[in-house]
Amino acid sequence: MKNISLLSTLLLLICISLNVSAQVPDTTLAGQYEAVVTKSGSYKIYKNVQKIKIEQLWKNVKDSLKKERKIAADSKAQLQKGIEEIAALQAENQELKAADSALNKLKNVGDTTLLWGLVILLGAGIVFVIYRSRSTVQEVKDQNERYEELNTEFREYKSKAAEKERKLARELQDERNLVDELKGK
Questions:
Q1: What CA–CA distance (Å, rounded) separates 9 from 26?
Q2: Alpha-carbon gap, residue 102 to 95, rounded angstroms
C-alpha cells in the first residue's frame, strides 16, 4: 500500500514537471508577437490587444533595434580602423621602398671605398687578435713544460723519500731486534 502511494506521488510529480517545462515562453520577437495575437480577445473581425502587452512588444522591438544598430556601429568602427591600418601599412611600404632605393645608391664609388676600408680595418683587427692569441698559447705551453718538470722532480723526491723512510724503518727494526736480543740473553 505504501509502495503504491509512493509510486502514484512520483508519477504525479513527473507529470507536473513535464507540464511546467512544456510551458516555457518563446522570447523571440516573432514568438512574443504570436503570444500577443493569440492571447488577445476578438470582436467580430477585430482583435482586442491589451495595451501593456503591445507596449512590452514595442519595447522589445526597440531594444532589439538598438542592439542591432550598436552591432552595426561597432562593425563600421572596426571597418574604419582596418582602412586606417591599411593606409598606414601602405605608407610604411612606401618608406621601405624608399629605403631600399637608398641602399641601392651604396654602389657609389665613394661608398664602396668606405666599405673596403672597413673590411681592411676588420681584417687588421682579426690579425692582431690572432697574434695575441698565439703569444698567449706560447706562454701556456711554457707554463705546462715548467709544470711537467716540477711534477717529475716532485715524483722523484717522493720516491727517494719513501725509499729513505723504508731504509730507516729497517734500521730501526734491526736496532730493536738487537736490543731485544741483548735483553733476552
A1: 30
A2: 11
Instruction: Quote the distance between the C-alpha of residue 153 and its chain's center.
Output: 60
Cα first-last separation, the chain: 124
Average pLDDT over the chain reads: 81
E strands present in 44-140: 46-48
Please list, in sequence order, all residues whose beta carbon lies within 8 angstroms of the beta carbon of residue 60, skipping any fewer than 6 positions away. 29, 32
Q: Could you state, in order of their start, the residue ranges of all structural domains in the chain?
A: 25-107, 108-185
Tell me the pTM.
0.34
Q: What is the pLDDT of residues 100-153, one digit of tens each?
A: 766 666 566 567 788 888 999 999 999 999 988 888 888 999 999 999 999 999
Instruction: Please give the Cα distance from 155 to 164 (Å, whole number).
Output: 14
Whole-angstrom CA distances from 143 to 33, 50, 96, 152 are 101, 110, 57, 14
